Predict the structure.
Amino acid sequence: TPDPTAVLDVANPFDPIMGVRSKGMLVPYMNQLQRDQMEASYNDTVANGLLSYDPEDGNFWYYRYDDPIPTTAPFGEWSSLTTSVQTPTGTPTGGIIMWAGTIASIPAGWALCNGATGTPDLTDKFIISVASSAENPGTAPVPGFFVDVEAGGVTAPDRRFFKLAYIMKL
């Protein structure tokens, strides 16, 4: 069912072969010269919000009015919907993660958090859950669910813990 506020409602059907919705929509292609010619041929009365794609500069362009009720031509102008690729940066410098591999296999650009090479010393430290009523979370682990590092054993019944280390992004 089309949206009642839309003149055009394009549905993207599920493609059972691809297993996804695999169709897009193409808007009309117009380079700058063609956009200018169109504007001139319609006596500067291009529809506000008209959209086109310029294959020469790789941008989408839309026609917009600066004045909500324009009275003299030109009524608006072409504006670019400039796009840019956002490259994920991953873990920021100084970010600390848990590491379950060997020390020899720590990736380049990372260092063991043992107090050397400008890292904090997180030896024998582990993030644990605390009771919501704890005044000082550092001293109040949830009963039955913590590792007793001092005694070298696990105090929670039927829990398995693995030896982990922390590494820091340099």
Residues 13 and 97 are 41 Å apart (CA to CA). The helical segments are 32-41.
